[in-house]
Design goal:
Blueprint: H1 7-13, H2 17-24, E1 30-36, E2 39-44, E3 52-57, E4 62-65, H3 75-85, H4 97-114, H5 124-152, H6 161-173, H7 177-189, H8 195-214, H9 221-231, H10 237-241, E5 246-260, E6 263-272, E7 278-286, E8 300-308, E9 317-322, E10 328-329, H11 347-360, E11 367-379, E12 382-386, E13 391-394, H12 403-409, E14 414-421, E15 424-432, E16 435-438, H13 459-467, H14 481-487, H15 494-511, E17 516-517, H16 534-546, H17 551-558, H18 570-579, H19 584-599, H20 617-621, H21 624-637, H22 639-649, H23 657-663, H24 674-680, H25 686-697, H26 703-715, E18 716-717, E19 728-729, H27 737-741, E20 754-755, E21 758-759, H28 761-772, H29 775-782, H30 785-788, H31 798-811, H32 815-825, H33 835-844, H34 847-855, H35 862-869, H36 878-897, H37 910-919, H38 925-934, H39 938-960
Antiparallel strand pairs: 1-2, 2-3, 3-4, 5-6, 5-8, 6-7, 8-9, 8-10, 11-12, 11-14, 12-13, 13-17, 14-15, 15-16, 18-19, 20-21
Helix pairs in contact: 1-3, 2-3, 5-6, 5-8, 5-13, 5-15, 6-7, 7-8, 8-15, 14-15, 18-19, 21-22, 23-25, 24-25, 26-28, 28-31, 31-32, 31-33, 32-33, 37-39, 38-39
């Protein structure tokens, strides 16, 4: 029996994170599972009456499932593999019938492919000859066009997209798609500031290819194959597999997926552990990145054969036979190869290797490199990869700056895998702490036309090409000495000689690159906190990408554990912290010391840098955000010290940040803060005065509260009716200075109270006084809260009184008044009630009262239930979740009885389902799944299924953080 695969390896086979998450939710739904030899099978109960039949051929691997999913492997195949990994699949003497039939079919097809029927080769040679004739004719036309461009002058040539497309179409007709693809990229080169040099370099490359094709039979077999490949001749897989196989333990180092015109391309870089040989796997798929799962994930190695495409510098390859079932992880990349005394992984060795490859195939645009123990450096002149001795290579930033690589390194040595191009090194992946990390900066459109470093030796030739060789003969004496010597043998048309000279100089410059130097900066400080678990880190990445509603719960659980993020995640966390203000602080805590170090070097992230809490210089010299953060942290540690610091600098504070600093006192507010708040009532800024009044209103024992109570007593009375006294108001005719100082008369720009069509300021003032008066004043005057809210009032008074009491209950956090006011407002005055204020009053009540109230509402009140549920603590209590499920089930049953009713479709309750997925206790997932199975309506079944999936997903999320 095949050895069980690890859960990590099974996870690496998943087409995406969603499929793997869905697979975990299927545990416990399997029956009839078994394994025999390399066959794994099982039955999984889905939404239909018949279970899905799932089969895995472990020798491939290959997958078969009767579900309608288009993902390979689907969630059922992944779940079956996970069950096998966990030891839940028993061994069997024979495969199940449905599995045996499929495996027999696979074996028959494989045997047929291995021994194809002999077909007459009539016409094959003739077709190849005809293609070569067409290519030769097309390239001859291309060469005439190229020399015409240089002869008449690049400055006068037509460089429009249409002009290049016309020539590219001719190459398509000539069956030279590789040449056509290059021509279609040339309009990008014309937008570059150095377009004459880039265009001339590409013209020279194309001219050299046409010349090579003209003498194809005289070239060596390897170079002949390379020229054919660059032009676009196809190389059948059978031809490749006819080459000698190369067996090694192949390390999977990096993967990159790009797309162009709907065609997705996956490139996978491999390196032989014993041979040190590079290999590149290339797969294409149109419409979606649905690539075969025949390649292990980066960080794994597999003992296998590779077949290399014929080439002067062989690199691209195909998989051959595997010599082991399960790829193994690796933590190191060997630098000393068997039989060679040289050490790989140095800049000198990498440059020498790419020079040899370029010497063999001068048409190469890139070559993989491995650099060990190097440090990425960002300097004034650009980005570099530097060795400990000071040697460095420039890093290409044509596709973006490698901030992820810099964050991963933190100034410490790492092993970098990349591609060397004319622009410099393009990082692909890095090995740090024994783990392969993707550090690519671009996943999208490829950039085959690169700028490169300006070559001063070819400047004279570029000038001549701009004017045109018909008007000016190029001076070749300024070329590098070896190139100048070689050009003496060039004869013929001036334009052709110039193009050939440029090609020679370009190859010489690219092959003769030498290391430069770069100074390494100070490394990031160590962070001793516990590392965030790998699974939790991967989930956080997906949650942040989707801005998931589960983020609040994730941070709430992770915060007390004080994790630090893996170094490879730090740049992504900073990027999201910049965009997501609501989660900024927890993201910065996760990024930690490495994040502060990285943010200090990024122009867009510098504002995220938070000074250390113990650094007192921040208060006197820091930026506004840093000072506010420092004061907030000090307030949490020592409220008196924070108050003293703010009081000492209050006279010199200015600007809008003054109110933000005063708002810090809200945390741990007490009567000790009263003196400073009273001082703030005299501030020139209206927002500072309003904030000070709001904070003082939360202190029932303050002098401010006593002044407000005095105004309430003076303005309100029971009138002169002895039988049924009513609360009435005389109201102030004009506010005195003391009332204005306390903020009663502050202008808010809008008042909800109107009298004869005009703003009713007296009623607005009454509202503000009542809101700032201690609630115990009304209890002495009117009795308990439940009685006070029912006191008869004069016409026009109930609105401001109820609104003022509501503000006071919220400010003074009084649950008894909140309960009474909620009952009064949600009753007779419900239509005119402020929904947000009503929800805040509901939130102040004890949980038992909240549940009792909501459980008293039936399914016709689902909209109000949903509104009030937003005020309940997370997660919602179990009885409340059960009640919501019961009401939704009633709606589903009504929908089955009355199909098509618009108000009964699950889409009408999608916001409630969305809230339930984020706030239901995860323990009710089984109950939700049971309800889904009993639903007669397929849409309601799908809605409950999705809810169960989300709850299980949350449960897994919580387990990952344990």
């Amino acid at each position: 029996m095949t050895t069980a695969w690890t859960a990590d390896y099974v996870g690496s086979l998943a087409p995406d994170a969603a499929a793997l998450t869905a697979a975990r939710t299927l545990r416990g739904k399997w029956s009839g599972t078994g394994i025999h030899d390399t066959a794994l099978w099982g039955l999984c109960q889905g939404s239909g009456s018949r279970p899905y039949q799932t089969i895995v051929d472990l020798s491939g691997p290959a997958y078969k499932c009767t579900c309608p999913s288009r993902k390979f492997p689907c969630k059922h195949a992944l779940s079956l593999l996970l069950s096998w990994s966990a030891g839940d699949v028993p061994a069997a003497d024979t495969a199940a019938d449905f599995a045996a039939d499929w495996l027999a079919g696979r074996a028959a097809r494989a045997e047929k492919q291995a021994a194809p029927e002999a077909k007459p080769a009539r016409g094959a040679g003739a077709a190849a000859d005809q293609r070569r004739v067409r290519v030769t004719a097309g390239l001859a036309d291309l060469d005439i066009w190229l020399t015409d461009q240089v002869r008449t002058g690049l400055a006068q040539s037509d460089r429009s997209i249409r002009a290049f497309e016309t020539v590219a179409a001719r190459m398509v007709d000539a069956q030279a798609p590789g040449i056509a693809a290059t021509l279609r990229q040339l309009p990008l080169a014309t937008t570059h500031s150095e377009w004459p040099r880039l265009l001339l370099r590409e013209y020279a490359r194309l001219h050299l290819l046409t010349a090579a094709h003209a003498r194809l039979d005289a070239l060596s077999p390897g170079l002949r194959a390379s020229v054919r490949t660059h032009i676009g001749y196809p190389t059948p897989a059978d031809t490749v597999r006819a080459e000698p196989a190369v067996r090694d333990r192949w390390l999977v180092l990096g993967i990159r997926i790009t797309t162009e015109d709907g065609l997705y391309t996956r490139r996978v870089w491999l390196r032989g552990r014993a041979s040190g040989r590079w290999a590149l796997l290339v797969d294409h798929h149109y419409g979606s990145p649905a690539f075969p799962n025949d390649t292990p994930a980066p960080g794994f190695q597999v003992d296998a054969n590779l077949y290399f495409y014929p080439s002067a510098a062989p690199l691209r390859a195909l998989w051959g036979d595997r010599h082991e079932d399960i790829p193994e992880p690796f933590t190191t990349i060997p630098l000393h190869m068997a039989g060679s005394p040289d050490r790989n992984g140095t800049i000198a060795a990498a440059l020498a290797e790419q020079a040899r490859a370029l010497g063999a195939d001068p048409f190469l645009r890139s070559w993989p490199v491995l650099l060990a123990e190097v440090v990425p450096v960002r300097g004034e002149k650009g980005w570099y990869i530097a060795e400990s001795g000071g040697d460095a290579l420039p890093v290409s930033t044509a596709e973006g700056e490698p901030w992820r690589l810099l964050g991963l390194s933190g100034g410490h040595p790492v092993t970098v895998i990349g591609e060397w191009t004319v622009d410099g090194l393009v990082p692909v992946a890095a090995l740090a702490a024994g783990t392969m990390v993707d550090v690519g900066v671009a996943q999208g459109n490829p950039m085959p036309i690169r700028g490169g470093v300006e070559d001063t030796a070819s400047a004279e030739l570029v000038s001549a090409a701009l004017v045109g060789t018909a008007r000016r003969q190029a001076d070749l004496s300024g070329l590098a000495s070896p190139v100048a010597a070689a050009t003496t043998a060039l004869t013929g048309d001036r334009a052709a000689v110039l193009l050939e000279s440029i090609a020679l100089q370009d190859c010489f410059a690219r092959g003769g690159v030498s290391a430069t130097s770069a100074e390494r900066s100070a490394a990031a400080a160590d962070d001793e906190r516990r590392l965030l678990p790998v699974a939790a880190g991967a989930r956080l990445t997906h949650l942040l990408a989707d801005n998931s509603p589960f983020l609040d719960e994730w941070f709430a659980l992770a915060g007390p554990r004080d994790f630090r993020a893996p170094d490879g995640m730090v740049s992504g966390l900073l990027d999201r912290a910049k965009a997501l203000a609501s989660h900024r602080e927890p993201l910065l805590r996760l990024a930690g010391a490495r994040g502060r170090w990285l943010a200090a070097q990024h122009p867009g992230w510098k504002s995220l840098v938070r000074a250390a809490a113990e650094d007192e210089s921040v208060w006197s010299h820091g930026r506004a955000a840093e000072r506010r953060s420092w004061l907030s942290q000090l307030r949490q540690r020592d409220a008196a010290a924070a108050r003293a610091a703010l009081a000492a600098s209050w006279g010199t504070e200015s600007g809008p940040g003054k109110a933000e600093l005063l708002a810090v006192l809200a945390d741990g507010l007490s009567l000790d803060d009263e003196a400073l708040l009273e001082t703030a009532l005299d501030d020139r800024r209206a927002e500072v005065r309003r904030l000070a009044a709001d904070l003082l209103g939360r202190l029932p024992d303050s002098a401010f509260a006593r002044r407000m109570a005095g105004r309430a007593a003076a303005w309100l009375s029971f009138g002169s009716r002895p039988v049924r006294p009513q609360l009435v108001t005389t109201g102030p005719g004009v506010l005195d200075e003391a009332a204005r100082r306390d903020g009663v008369g502050d202008s808010f720009g809008y008042t909800a109270y109107r009298a004869d069509g005009a703003p009713d300021l007296s009623t607005e003032w009454l509202h503000r006084v009542v809101a700032a008066t201690p609630l115990r004043h009304w209890e002495r005057l009117l009795g308990p809260a439940a009685e006070a809210v029912r006191v008869p009032m004069a016409e026009g008074m109930r609105g401001p009184m109820i609104a003022g009491w509501s503000d006071a209950a919220l400010a003074q956090r009084n649950p008894e008044w909140a309960r009474a006011l909620f009952g009064a407002v949600s009753g007779a005055d419900a239509r005119d009630a402020d929904t947000d204020k009503l929800r805040e009053l509901f939130a102040l009540q004890p949980e038992a009262d909240q549940v009792r109230y909501l459980r008293g509402l039936d399914s016709s009140w689902l909209a109000e239930i949903e509104s009030m549920l937003r005020a309940m603590p997370h997660p919602w209590p179990g009885p409340m979740a059960e009640h919501v499920l019961r009401l939704l089930t009633e709606r589903a049953q009504l929908c089955a009885d009355r199909p098509g009713a618009p108000s009964l479709v699950p889409g009408s309750y999608r916001t409630l389902f969305r809230a339930a997925s984020a706030h239901f206790p995860v323990a009710v997932a089984g109950m939700v799944s049971g309800i889904a199975r009993r639903c007669a309506d397929p849409y309601w079944e799908q809605a409950f299924d999705q809810l169960a999936h989300d709850l299980i997903d949350r449960k897994t999320m919580l387990e990952e953080l344990q």
